[in-house]
Design a protein that fits this description.
95 residues; alpha+beta; Glutaredoxin; 4-stranded mixed beta sheet; 2 helices; 18% strand
Length: 95
């Protein structure tokens, strides 16, 4: 292989690495949980802190049911929905 071919191959490899890196960062930023609750509910705060400590600060999306849009079937707090769709009502450390 001549120098031009090696250079083109190197550029192609670099572009592939950059693309893979950007895809990994997108996947890393995906939230694992949605927590529905209120700011005045101690168990909502406790659930959020638990998820932060176990999975990291960006592990969940918080929806304040006093100011945000909560589904009508949420009548108690917190309600946590996992990425797989499992719904847990109340504080839970098993997630």
């Amino acid at each position: 292989m001549n120098k031009v071919g090696v250079t083109l191959l190197g550029i192609l490899l670099l572009l592939v690495c950059v693309r893979v890196y950007s895809l990994l960062n997108i996947v890393k930023d995906v939230k694992k949980f949605i927590v529905y609750g209120t700011s005045w509910c101690g168990y909502t705060t406790k659930q959020r802190k638990h998820l932060d400590s176990k999975y990291g600060k960006n592990s969940h999306t918080y929806v304040d049911c006093e100011t945000g849009k909560c589904p009508k079937d949420i009548t108690s707090f917190p309600v946590t929905i996992s990425a797989s769709g499992n719904k847990v009502v109340g504080f839970n450390t098993e997630m």
